[in-house]
Design brief:
GO terms for molecular function: copper ion binding; oxidoreductase activity. The protein is mainly beta. It has 3 domains: 33-214, Immunoglobulin-like; 226-382, Cupredoxins -  blue copper proteins (Immunoglobulin-like, Sandwich); 401-571, Immunoglobulin-like, CATH 2.60.40.420. 8% of the residues lie in helices and 37% in strands. It has 6 helices and 33 strands. The strands form 6 sheets. It has a 7-stranded mixed sheet with strand order 13-12-11-15-20-17-18, with no helix packed on it. It has a 6-stranded mixed sheet with strand order 24-23-26-31-28-29, with no helix packed on it. Strands 1-5-10-9-7 form a 5-stranded mixed sheet. It is globular, with a radius of gyration of 23 Å. 51% of the residues are buried.
Length: 573
């Protein structure tokens, strides 16, 4: 255990670092002077999560490390110190290698920490944080976002470890994680999940894509494949003139939290490790698996020439039927799977753009830099395209509210200082370390009514489970209800039914399938049906989900998650 005196010593040293480095904060890159669309979009290294022996797929063990190295985000930027995933320091990339797993075949990953003794970014010891007893090393732990596996492989926030496992968190159990890949085919991603350090570890670069494939189910769909199937990991960063990543070193309430701020935003938009890249495409259909790996930025994507998107999946599951849109909103950590038909473009090039305010929904409008994402350079002549988007994709059982074994209320709170600045955020008015209140029977379904009493849109992520959103309804007389909730923290006693009577906000058609993240609008109650079993087979998990350290659910704005909009989720038999 780290003593109060130890935290004070860390805090004094931390403030000293801030004073020494504060001069650099005025030397930020003016990103509007960087030319856009000069770097080619990288395709990240591919790691197969399975072997094939005599034509039969077999489990595979991977060794992936976390390394400090430099990375060039733009042709005209100096190399940037980063933390990166890879099979070696030389091959480590931002984002890390894409892991391609096979449905039904185990993938074992030994995650190794080769990071230095000190972080490359400022962090705040006054929020609940992983602090090594030796005061040495950068704690890390990996969560496979969207994965369905036992608690010991889930990447608990307190299962962290430093280099060579010299220091380990109280929930640490094992060096090698087992990803069973028994779930439905779809898109996942892996990222750091360390207590109090998730926002800085991801900002430093610890992110990567993971795909669960099921050829016998997906092949007949004949969606674009091979070179015409690309993963796009999108996030935002700001840089100093020396190339280093800029993150604030002074908090919005410095007398309470010297470094923590409620959201991080950068003006350079990065896709697959390059700022505003370009991709040469043929005049045909392409599939793009788009992951929003930003700390806090929402994206509202659209094409500048009116080209449309055909949605085939959302988060880690296929949709039942394709959905066409001209634009769509993607919150932090959400994944959308779309097909774009460039043969329909009347232009030789088109820009993927963004117009989501930040913070979302009532923050600043986008500017010249963060309103552009990447550019596509389209070949002149159309070509034979044998891929298609079928009228039916993959059908899963229709969710049934009457099957729910219990109804719960989950309430989002934000707390402020005397100056009106946020100090921390809670779910159900409880800190993370308070005993679990969401104790769910494995194999069952529950209705969760998520009440957002803050002014932010919070992307709520639930580990292990999948859910369907039934409705979002605006609160009436919200301040009166909020006053009651601040006193009682009990939606039933505060007569939620009297206030959840506002207009219904339509759930977008492309988000009506099974998801693991959903955007909880401010001033609304969102009704979801949470399923703690496989959706493709309706079977219970073949592993024991009741073990320690359990699971969690949390806001995926990382600055909120770290301070401490996260609660335990326990399963029982």
């Amino acid at each position: 255990m780290v003593t109060v005196q130890g935290v004070l010593v860390l805090l004094i040293a931390f403030m000293g670092v801030l004073l020494e480095t504060s001069w650099a904060e005025d030397q930020l890159v003016n990103v509007t002077r960087l030319q856009m669309f000069v770097d080619e979009l990288p395709d990240m290294p591919l790691l197969k999560g399975f072997d094939v022996v005599n034509g039969v797929p077999k489990p595979k063990s991977l060794k992936i490390g976390m390394y400090m190295k430099t990375w060039r985000f733009h042709r005209d930027l100096p190399a940037t110190p980063v933390f990166a995933y890879g099979t070696s320091e030389r091959t480590a990339t931002i984002p890390g290698p894409t892991i391609e797993a096979l449905q039904g075949i185990d993938t074992f990953v030994t995650w190794s920490n080769y990071l230095p003794s000190e972080h490359i970014l400022p962090w705040d010891p006054t929020i609940p944080t992983a602090i090594p007893a030796s005061k040495n090393g950068v704690p890390t732990v990996v969560h496979l976002h969207g994965g369905i596996h036992e608690p010991a492989s889930d990447g608990s926030a307190k299962a962290w470890f430093t280099a060579e496992f010299k220091d380990r968190g109280p929930a640490w159990t094992q060096q090698t994680y087992r990803y069973r890949n028994q779930q439905q085919p779809g898109n996942l991603w892996y990222h750091d999940h360390t207590m109090g350090l998730t926002r800085v570890n991801l900002l430093a670069g610890l992110i990567g894509a993971y795909i669960v494939c099921q050829p016998e189910v997906e092949g007949p769909l004949r969606l674009p494949s091979g070179e015409f199937d690309r993963t796009l990991v999108v996030f935002d960063r700001s840089f100093r003139t020396n190339g280093s990543i800029y993150m604030n070193s002074t908090g919005n309430n410095p007398s309470i939290h010297p470094q923590w701020q409620p959201e991080y935003f950068g003006d350079a938009i990065i896709v697959n490790g390059k700022a505003w890249p370009q991709l040469k495409v043929r005049r045909r259909k392409y599939r793009f698996r788009i992951i929003n790996a930003s700390n806090a930025r929402f994206f509202k994507f659209f094409f500048t020439n009116g080209l449309g998107f055909i949605h085939v999946g959302s988060d880690s599951a296929y949709l039942g039927k394709p959905v066409e849109t001209k634009d769509f909103l993607l919150g932090p950590s959400e994944i959308t799977d779309v097909v774009v038909d460039f043969s329909m473009s009347k232009n030789a090039n088109v820009t993927l753009a963004n117009d989501a305010p930040y913070p979302y929904p009532s923050g600043d409008p986008v500017n010249d830099a963060n309103s552009k994402v990447m550019q596509f350079l389209i070949a002149d002549h159309p070509e034979l395209d044998t891929s298609r988007v079928p009228s039916t994709l993959i059908q899963y059982p229709v969710p049934d509210l009457s099957s729910a074994s219990r109804t719960r209320y989950i309430t989002m709170y934000e707390y402020e200082s005397d100056t009106g600045e946020p100090t921390h955020l809670y779910l159900n008015a409880k800190p993370f370390d308070a005993p679990a209140t969401e104790i769910v029977k494995a194999g069952t379904s529950e209705v969760w009514n998520v009440i957002n009493l803050t002014q932010d849109n919070h992307p709520l992520h639930i580990h292990l489970g999948l859910f369907v959103v039934f409705e979002q309804r605006e609160l009436v007389n919200e301040e009166k209800f909020k006053d009651c909730m601040n006193k009682l923290n009990d939606a039933v006693k505060c007569q939620i039914s009297r206030y959840a009577r506002g207009k219904t906000v339509e759930v977008p058609a492309h988000e009506k399938g099974w998801k693991n993240v959903f955007k909880m609008r401010p001033g609304t109650v969102t009704k979801i049906l949470l399923r703690l079993a496989y959706i493709h087979s309706n079977a219970s998990y073949e592993f024991d989900p009741t073990g320690e350290p359990g699971y969690v659910y949390h806001c995926h704005i990382l600055d909120h998650e770290d301070n401490v909009m996260m609660r335990p989720l326990k399963l029982v038999r």
